[in-house]
Prior knowledge:
mainly alpha
Amino acid sequence: MGEMTVGAAVVCGGILAWLLAERQREVRRARLLLAGGGAMAAGPPSWEWTAGELRRLRAHWRGEWWALAAGIALALVAASVIPVLAGAAGVPVLRRLRLARKAARVRRARADAVIAFCGTLAGELRAGRQPGEALLRAARDSGGLGEARAAVVAAARFGGDVPGALVTAARRPGAEGLLGLAACWRVAVDQGAGLAAGLGRLETALRAERDQRADLRAQLSGARATVVLLAALPALGLLLGSAMGADPLRVLLHTGAGLGCLAAGAVFEGAGMWWAARIVRGAEAV
């Protein structure tokens, strides 16, 4: 018991020291860049941590590190280093899930911005402005172009390849609707078709597609909740066994049969989660 506790404490201390050192390197690098490579501005010593720096550190590492903290706490209770290893292995998995959710939010926000941009551009054209001027005003008033705004604005202002710039901007996730805008622009320039009417139909189609995807996500929310509940059942079983006095942690972490069951259960749990997530992703991609 004592050796396991000391080992878990040493691992915890090492990880904490690594996090602090990594954070300090980032702070020094940022100060050097802001100072133009010169001497760093005077400030608190490197070992002195303020409440703001701790908040920034927590915001940088986010919530996936709670898996490691939970593993360390469980290791201290169960006198085993296995929970620490499991918590450390869960950190990159949870980080990947968090980044995937963040990317999905950014993609949806960008798609909404593209729809708003198309609507603004159509309104400017209906007001009687020329396509180039209308594009400049819409790009100024809307965030649909994002990082590619400068290239599209330059193409519209100086007679460049506006459809090509729009196609380049459409490569970002969520901005695929700009491909339709590029096609409408080509048709309007080459054949003299009405650009405002085409943009109106494009905006309507993009809104319908967005609403369909939102409805699909709402229908899949129940499936996601079921998956999370099923994933939490093993932990609930351990809590129930502990409440009944069966001491499941000792059996799982300190006996050969328990370690075998733990390994098999972890494999089946991971496979089930992966398969359920694949089914949900496949349904969203339809």
